[in-house]
Automatic annotation (TrEMBL):
<feature type="modified residue" description="4-aspartylphosphate">
    <location>
        <position position="62"/>
    </location>
</feature>
<dbReference type="Pfam" id="PF00072">
    <property type="entry name" value="Response_reg"/>
</dbReference>
<protein>
    <submittedName>
        <fullName>Response regulator</fullName>
    </submittedName>
</protein>
<dbReference type="InterPro" id="IPR001789">
    <property type="entry name" value="Sig_transdc_resp-reg_receiver"/>
</dbReference>
<dbReference type="InterPro" id="IPR011006">
    <property type="entry name" value="CheY-like_superfamily"/>
</dbReference>
<keyword id="KW-0597">Phosphoprotein</keyword>
<dbReference type="InterPro" id="IPR050595">
    <property type="entry name" value="Bact_response_regulator"/>
</dbReference>
<keyword id="KW-0902">Two-component regulatory system</keyword>
<dbReference type="GO" id="GO:0000160">
    <property type="term" value="P:phosphorelay signal transduction system"/>
</dbReference>
<feature type="domain" description="Response regulatory">
    <location>
        <begin position="13"/>
        <end position="126"/>
    </location>
</feature>
Length: 127
């Protein structure tokens, strides 16, 4: 592999904002399988801190978190990291889809979603 090829295939960073361990593990495994570098936080405040240091290519944002609703932080995350694409994930609040998209989410995934739906969403946003 040449140096140019390595540069072109730079590993993309993903941030998972999710407080449920099982869901986080699943997302981590699926994204890691796509060759992404995955970081994880369990709260909105931790995500705010993270975004002061890092600018992930993609953010997977759960709606119900211990310190608030992800949907209320989409615009702040877009402000902190304008190039980041946001996939809003929610299992309880399907009605939140329109608001999430209006607030700046790029894609809304309703739980349960399939591996194919996740990959399709990630590929659509990053390619």
């Amino acid at each position: 592999m040449t140096a140019n090829t390595t540069q072109d295939n730079k590993v993309k960073k993903a941030l998972i904002i999710e407080d449920e361990g099982d869901m986080c593990l699943l997302l981590n495994i699926l994204l890691d399988g796509k060759g992404m570098e995955v970081d994880h936080v369990q709260s909105l405040s931790a995500a705010e801190e993270y975004l002061l240091q890092e600018k992930p290519a993609i953010i997977l944002l759960d709606n119900r978190l211990p310190d608030g609703f992800g949907i209320d932080f989409i615009s702040l995350f877009k402000e902190r990291s304008p190039a980041s694409k946001i996939i809003m994930i929610s299992g309880i609040d399907a009605s939140a889809k329109d608001v999430a998209l209006e607030n700046g989410a790029d894609i809304f995934l309703e739980k349960p979603f399939t591996r194919a739906q996740l990959y399709e969403s990630v590929n659509e946003l990053l390619n």
